[in-house]
Specification:
about 375 residues; alpha+beta; FAD/NAD(P)-binding domain; D-Amino Acid Oxidase, Chain A, domain 2; 2 domains; 8-stranded mixed β-sheet; 6-stranded antiparallel β-sheet; about 25% helix; globular; binds flavin-adenine dinucleotide
């Protein structure tokens, strides 16, 4: 009998597994349908450690981004994992300076670390090639290697006695005693029933399906997953040209096409936001989109005109809609009210989910009245 089964071994599931197994001493099973952990959303994102600038005060994203960011820097530093607190500029054209100021106050309210408003042209003194926009500077933003981070989490989880079941797909649940019996199907189609006291569904793009298969009626209540693809382009000749992340102001469905660095100083642009019609993610970057990227980025980096753009990878955001309305916050539901105490569903774990990885466990422990 497990004390906790976690469905989905992306960053969220690995962070939960490590927290409950290692820090709380619970006997945990982490279930993943793929042949390796960390192959889903967590493998295809910007790898930015967000400071917590963007999210409405009081939202779960604001709370878990800020507490996750603090825990994440500490964790990466302690274990000597690759990361850089490089800082970020968010740029605003003159007509959008009011919006920039609102963002500044939002960031301060959220506790997003130090932030500073810079007057028009200040960033140009650092990067001559950028347009003379006003900017918000966030020194608490950074970048990490998601792969190295997830490998470390998985290693600590297993070294602490946690079980990781790969090629195991959650297929159904039945209430049993004080907990649940869940059914897993392996690659050969064999099924196994696993008794557990509690379950966290952190299945990323599959989370609504898992909830449906477990008997929770989100689909009947109008909840829908919409796949929102974000493509990236590489800018090969620009390596080393920037030391900071450069962002435009955010839009409704994303943070805007930004200039992103990796730990080798490669420059990438992205992601854009494109809703997919089907139910299957599509990770192919359409080279035709380069023109739109160029136009978007030229607003703040006119020098992009001298560079070629090469299609890179794409990621897919798990956007949740209800009755046609986009629910922009993380949705983490304790299903006690639905008659299933001990079952938690996590939906819409979009950005800043990677930053929030280490905050999910303590928050869910609090939800269960277990202290943090
Ligand atoms: C384009 C893009 C850019 C982003 N940029 C950033 C960023 O810069 N910073 C940041 O903080 N966040 C960012 N994010 C968000 C971040 O990547 C995600 O919030 C985070 O990776 C989500 O992790 P997860 O574990 O919930 O999902 P996943 O990594 O997808 O893990 C879910 C796992 O569940 C498994 N699964 C599904 N169904 C089943 C089943 N039935 N049985 C067993 N296993 C199952 C899947 O195979 C998968 O491995 C970005 C996201 C996108 C799409």
């Amino acid at each position: 009998m497990y004390e906790l089964v976690i469905i989905g071994a992306g960053a969220a599931g690995l962070g939960l597994g490590r927290y409950f197994q290692v820090e709380r001493g619970w006997r945990c099973l982490l279930v993943e349908r793929e042949a390796a952990f960390g192959q889903g959303i967590s493998a295809r994102n910007s790898e930015v450690i967000h400071a917590g600038l963007y999210y409405p005060a009081g939202s779960l994203k604001a709370e878990l981004c800020v507490s996750g960011r603090e825990r994440l820097y500490h964790y990466l530093e302690q274990r000597d994992l690759p990361y850089r607190q490089c800082g970020k500029y968010v740029l605003a054209a003159p007509e959008a300076e009011d919006q920039l100021e609102q963002l500044y106050h939002q960031a301060r309210d959220n506790g997003a670390g130090d932030v500073a408003l810079l007057e028009r042209g200040a960033v140009r003194r650092i990067y001559a090639g950028l347009s003379p926009f006003a900017a918000l500077y966030s020194p608490s933003s950074g970048i990490l290697s998601a792969e190295a981070f997830m490998r470390q989490l998985a290693g600590e989880f297993q070294a602490g006695g946690g079980d990781l079941a790969l090629q195991s797909t959650f297929s159904s649940m039945a209430p049993s005693g004080d907990g649940f019996e869940i059914t897993l199907t392996d690659a050969a189609g064999e099924t196994v029933a696993v008794p557990t006291e509690r379950v966290i569904n952190s299945a990323g793009l599959g989370a609504l399906d898992v909830a449906g298969a477990a008997g929770f009626d989100y689909a009947d209540r109008g909840y829908r997953l919409r796949l929102c693809k974000g493509s990236y382009f590489r800018v090969p000749g620009a390596r080393g040209a920037f030391e900071h992340l450069i962002y435009p102001l955010p839009s409704d469905h994303g943070l805007g096409i930004h200039l992103r660095l990796d730990l080798l100083d490669e420059v990438r642009l992205g992601p854009d936001a494109e809703y997919l019609d089907g139910e299957e993610p599509d990770f192919i970057v359409d080279p035709q989109r380069a023109a739109d990227f160029r136009t978007a980025v030229a607003l703040y980096w006119p020098g992009i005109a001298a560079h070629t753009l090469e299609p890179d990878w794409a990621g897919v955001r798990p956007h949740i809609y209800r009755a046609g309305e986009y629910l922009s916050d993380f949705l983490i539901r304790d299903e006690a009210e639905a008659g299933s105490p001990g079952w938690v569903n996590m939906f819409g774990i979009d950005s800043p989910g990677l930053t929030a990885t280490l905050a999910f466990g303590p928050w869910i422990a609090g939800l269960w009245g277990e202290g943090q």
